[in-house]
Design goal:
The protein is an alpha/beta fold and 368 residues long. The chain folds into 2 domains: 54-158 and 340-367, no CATH class; 161-338, Rossmann fold, CATH 3.40.50. It is 44% helix and 12% strand. It contains 13 helices and 10 strands. A 6-stranded parallel sheet has the order 7-6-5-8-9-10, with helices on both faces. A 4-stranded parallel sheet has the order 1-2-3-4, with helices on both faces. Helix 6 (191-204) crosses helix 11.
Length: 368
């Protein structure tokens, strides 16, 4: 605002009192804080609406599909979302039974919060338009009951202009295939699947190399798995890198491998923006973003079948430089749909639809 003043843009900040937020440090307590913050935001917004007549409100959420929006408590038509949460982890793809148990507890708890909170039902009823990051959000209660006709799908993530304009990496000719994977080393990211799929590639391309950028609680277990698979010499665990350095690794890769089961997947867009063909699962966010023109989104089955499909996709790309080039170009075109510049048009369509819904409702009331 200091660099580019805009007389039509105004900010009103809301927060809890200091004594009610001193315990919020990093990830600890962030969701409890967010729930309580809704009431502070509601009070602030109510005061603002006493001064200004608004036509429409939009809650750009915590990308959280199990906490209500304070806008449901105000006499304003509103757009809600994008809402999202990670889908249920497929049992067959989990690295252990403990991982499955923790994921099921997380999933059931989120389901309970949605169904048990009357404020969530109120918001679902009152929202003019509800946006979910994937189709599974629309199948959850109470959205499946009260919001089915006003639900649309759109991602909550996007790429900045400089990424959308990034230059694709040079295509290797006669060199070892370079496979890249980036992410936090936690169970949902599926790095154990990446290692097994890469092992299948090595059987066909013995000079191939896999570079994994990231860190987390699963790192030592993954390193042990690489040793058991006999691929440790071909896998490089880089560790955590600052964002700029992490982005630079795309320029040294031929293929991006990301068998995650998450609901979003920002790194997928970053890889496509850098002109990398993507190999991922046809599941959650990655399955929505990667098409057959820009990569391989393989069907989820049991572990053996899924790993075989991931490995086969890697082999196909490794053996066909022209296919990699075509997919690289298609990935660049595809990612333009997810640029923040393009998002303005989409958001305008949301608002027009929400306002037209209100006019049609008033018309039916007047005719009745």
């Amino acid at each position: 605002m200091a660099l580019a003043p805009n007389p039509h843009l105004h900010f009103d900040y809301a927060d809890l009192p200091r004594w009610a937020r001193f315990w919020k440090k990093g990830r600890r307590g962030i969701r409890t804080y967010y729930y309580l913050w809704q009431f502070a935001a509601c009070l602030k917004a109510w005061r603002v609406t006493r001064r200004i007549r608004f036509d429409l409100a939009h809650h750009v959420t915590f990308v959280n599909s199990y906490v209500f929006s304070f806008l449901g408590l105000l006499p304003l038509p509103f757009v809600w979302g994008p809402l999202g949460s990670n889908p249920k982890l497929p049992t067959a793809l989990a690295s252990s039974q403990r991982v499955v148990l923790r994921d099921r507890l997380r999933y059931v708890w989120q389901q309970f919060l949605r169904v048990a909170d009357p404020l969530f039902w109120l918001c679902t009823y009152r929202a003019r338009l509800i946006i979910g990051i994937d189709a599974s959000i629309g199948r959850q209660l109470p959205i499946a009951v009260l919001g089915k006709r006003k639900f649309v799908v759109h991602t909550a993530i996007g790429v900045e202009g400089e990424l959308a304009e990034a230059q694709p990496p040079p295509q290797a000719t006669g060199l070892a295939i370079r496979v890249l994977s980036i992410g936090q080393m936690i169970p949902i990211k599926g790095f154990h699947l990446a290692l097994r799929a890469f092992a299948a590639l090595l059987q066909k391309e013995s000079e191939a190399r896999l570079e994994i950028v990231g860190d987390g609680p699963e790192r030592q277990a993954l390193q042990r798995l690489a040793t058991r698979l006999g691929i440790a010499e071909s896998v490089k665990f880089v560790g955590w890198l600052p964002r700029e350095q992490a982005l630079s690794t795309f320029g040294h890769a031929d293929i991006f491998l990301f068998p995650s089961c998450e609901g979003a997947g920002m790194v997928i867009l970053e890889a496509m923006a850098h002109g990398l063909p993507v190999v991922c699962l046809d599941f959650g966010g990655p399955g929505e973003m990667v098409t057959s023109e820009c990569g391989f989104a393989v069907e989820v089955g049991d572990t053996e079948t899924t790993v075989a499909a991931l490995g086969a996709a890697l082999v196909t790309l490794a053996k066909d430089p022209s296919l990699r080039l075509r997919m690289a170009k298609a990935a660049r075109r595809r990612v333009e749909e997810y640029s923040w510049a393009a998002r303005r048009k989409v958001i305008g369509q949301w608002y027009a639809k929400a306002l037209s819904t209100g006019r049609s409702m008033r018309s039916r009331v007047e005719q009745g």
